[in-house]
Specification:
seven-stranded mixed beta sheet; 176 residues; 4 helices; globular; disordered N terminus; alpha+beta
């Protein structure tokens, strides 16, 4: 004869320390690992270093309990910004970290009075397109044959979708 004992337990929660930091060369190995796990066409170490060293770029990493799990690189123009690269460690996707990085960027852009963000995404990257649309980005145009589709055959190309987001101002205006 077997018996079962049922014990009610309280759910436990772990404190998670989330931080946004300026992306530096120290995080490059972690960022490269994330990039290589996410992309069939990963950026090189040189591309990341060049982006970090460019004073027109905003480069952030998202850390959880001291571990780099995401990054975002955006290039500033006069009154707009272009997202050049964004990535989340595959083990940490679908937990809101991409949204958190994007929101961090938006807050930094508001401080600089920048009101528009642009990006390009491969037409075949359906999950990224869904993510950006969920964040309020709209399709602006299609760039025909913009991306190389197959690194072994450079003639195979894929369209790129140009997307944009207008950043609403958070200022409260006095109405007389």
């Amino acid at each position: 004869m077997s018996s079962a004992i049922s014990i009610k337990t309280k759910p436990t929660t772990r404190r998670t320390s989330i931080s946004f930091n300026k992306l530096t060369s120290v995080e490059i190995p972690s960022v490269l690992s994330i990039e290589e796990r996410n992309s069939d066409y990963p950026w090189s170490q040189l591309q990341f270093i060049t982006s970090i060293e460019n004073s027109n770029n905003l480069c952030y990493c998202l850390s959880l309990n001291g571990k780099t799990v995401g990054y975002l690189i955006a290039m500033l123009a006069l009154d707009s910004a272009d997202i050049l690269n964004i990535g989340i460690d595959p083990d940490f996707k679908r937990h809101g970290h991409g949204t958190a990085l994007l929101n961090h960027l938006i807050e930094e852009l508001r401080k600089r009075n920048i009101r528009e963000i642009f990006l390009e995404v491969r037409v075949g990257n359906k999950s990224a397109i869904r993510f950006y649309k969920k964040q309020g980005f709209e399709e602006i145009s299609v760039r025909k044959n913009y991306y190389i589709k197959n690194s072994k055959n450079q003639s195979q190309r894929e369209d790129g979708i140009m997307m944009g987001l207008k950043i609403p101002s958070t200022e409260i205006k006095n109405v007389l």
